[in-house]
Amino acid sequence: MGIISNLTALYLICIKSRKNVCEYRKLLLLFLISDLFYAILQGALEPSIIVSGDMFMIFASGFFQNNVMLSVYCGCVSMSFVIISFHFVFRALAMSNKSYVVSHLDWKKLSLICLIFLAVSGIWGGLTYTQFSYLPSYERLARNYFDSINLTFPKDPARELIIFQAHFERRLFISHTLSPRLDGSIAMNILLTILFVEVLVGTFVFAVIVSCIYIMRCLSSVGRNSEAWKNHHRHLFVALLVQFLIPLILLYIPCTVFILVPVFGISSSFTTPTWLLSGVYSIYPILDPLAIILLINDYRRALKEMGKTLITKVNSLQHLKLPSSRSR
């Protein structure tokens, strides 16, 4: 469904965009292409993201079952938020006094934007691959989790799992037996990685907030621009806000919660369902393109016209079949 939703939005943007959204269309295309790649990865990997005690783990049950592809998948999660922040900055620039000079997206600017997208995605994916890699000390907790859901523990966990344990574990003599217990100290490399990622996301959130303030001031200003100009930018701004809220609610807030819960160590018996975050993540590539289609007037009208044309053709085919069936 995510692939179909993105392909439909791509078709409408390529064919049905007016000249006054020509520059904005370029960013929309980048956004939808990244969404499409994310949807394809989601289907190919079928990832499961869980928290069990102070352990965070991602494993795949689809066509690809290796941590390299899972790291690329995590990088794609980060890219959507970066692209959305650029959308807000672009909308603010498009409403400025020097809108054409600043917001005209030639190939040099587009290439630079793409490089930034790929750099942030690469940083996120690289940190996931290097810092959340399997260690022998994780085996006990990981194996116990796989046993609890009746799945076979991976033959090569170092190549198949994205995993971290937020607290160090040491062996203590308890009741004259050698038993593992958490010693309470946080793994600093894990904590610093999480903090760095949160700060990185925070910078783009800050850009969104600043852009929103400027856009709202422009829309509320009296006598500066015509009502038609304001209505056009107001519709695009509302569509952007929805596009921002969808990944915020479906991707980043759940991801942040899942990453931070192991650090706080709520309970050693606390375990999330295997389907929970994976199910939420699978909804995202379906809803995001629909927000673009339904909230931007040009694309909504074009979709209605396509629907009417399809219904007309289906009805005409049914009428053609009726005489032939009666003659028999």
TrEMBL record:
Assigned keywords, A-Z: Membrane, Transmembrane, Transmembrane helix
Pfam families documented for this protein: 7TM_GPCR_Str (PF10326)
Coiled coil spans: none
Membrane-crossing residue ranges in chain numbering: 27-50, 70-90, 110-132, 186-215, 236-263, 275-296
InterPro entries documented for this protein: 7TM_GPCR_serpentine_rcpt_Str
Alphabetical list of PANTHER family matching this protein: 7-TRANSMEMBRANE DOMAIN RECEPTOR C.ELEGANS, SEVEN TM RECEPTOR
Name of the featured protein: G protein-coupled receptor
Species this chain originates from: Pristionchus pacificus
Lineage of the species this protein comes from: Eukaryota, Metazoa, Ecdysozoa, Nematoda, Chromadorea
